[in-house]
Task: structure prediction
Amino acid sequence: MPPPADGPAAVAAGGRVPMKRYWEIDALRGLMLVLMTFTHLPTRFTDPLGQPFGFVSAAEGFVLLSAFVAGLVYTRISDRQGVDAMRRAFWRRALKVYLAQAATLLFLFTIITRVGLRIDQPAVKNLLSFYLADPPEAFAYSLLLVYEPALLDILPMYIFFMLMSPWVLAFALRHGWAGVMLASAAFWALAQFGFSEWLYGLAAQYLHLSVPFHEMGAFNAFAWQFLWFAGLWMGASRHAPDAEPFRIPRWVAALAVALAIYGIWWRHHGINGQAPFGGDEELNMLFDKWQLGPLRIVNLVVLGIVAVRFGPGLMRRIPRLRWLEAMGSASLPVFCAHLVAVLLVLAFYGDSQTARPWWGDALLLAVVFAWLYAVARATQWWDNRPPKARYRDTGTIDSSA
Result:
């Protein structure tokens, strides 16, 4: 998933508050981008590398990490410069994500549409069925973040979270997180029982909304907000210099390891692959990605416990993977660049995972990852220019938070 932040801020809120960069988080977010690219590109590697750690995808890890970073960075801005500065920083970031979404939509509606129609590509026609039926209306609704074509439904959810976060964070800093998390859990529970569909029905009835429900994005934002605000809470709790590290009892860590191993075995050696219960749709909803089903949260929690308990020791023992760090630190541009690559492949090859021989898939992946790394390095170069040059070019110093 695209980030609301390009990493723990090297410079926050106009460059006035130096912030430590956590290379471990950058590397993890880079790993999430790699897994997303494997999942979204239609190749022979798509199914084996989809949800590789159990019934949890890269999207969950990315949302949680991005929310953690946002909580850490923006709480520190609020602490040092005030709530108004924190709100402005959130809004600037939301605007940046919105502009990235608009640019990607423009690429989809122009170049990808033209190529797909010229070569009569079914994958593009299916992706753009609503747009092709009424381009002006679809384009307007897409800019309003109502119409969200597949693959381009992630950034609108982040924008929604970023716009909500300053109010939620300001409330939590004054009154504590208990009420926030209870309300968030309540909305998650409502989402499991059709709350989004009910709201859509009201909008269709009273506002005459013409966008079909299935064209409004696969992610249920009312469910996924629980994951976002949980990450925001964890990040906010880490901003104090004397914050105690997370302490996990040994028995909890042992249980988490056992459950994580079982989840990985079930995912890769079970007879149903990524569908944990085969054709039983009701049971599969317990692991549903788009609704963020309850067992999916359990799987994510046990993986999180394992990562927190054993991750720091592992990171001290392995070489720093600076190419992953580079991709994670430039996560928004890299995410958009990965969408460009995926859309081009869909336009020229379609969505078949066997359209090329195995060596063709390997070559395609090598080219795509080289492209993503080049985008990451170019972004780093741009962000690391002297502040005076950045101010002269943009009129302001953009926060990497």
Residues 153 and 396 are 29 Å apart (CA to CA).
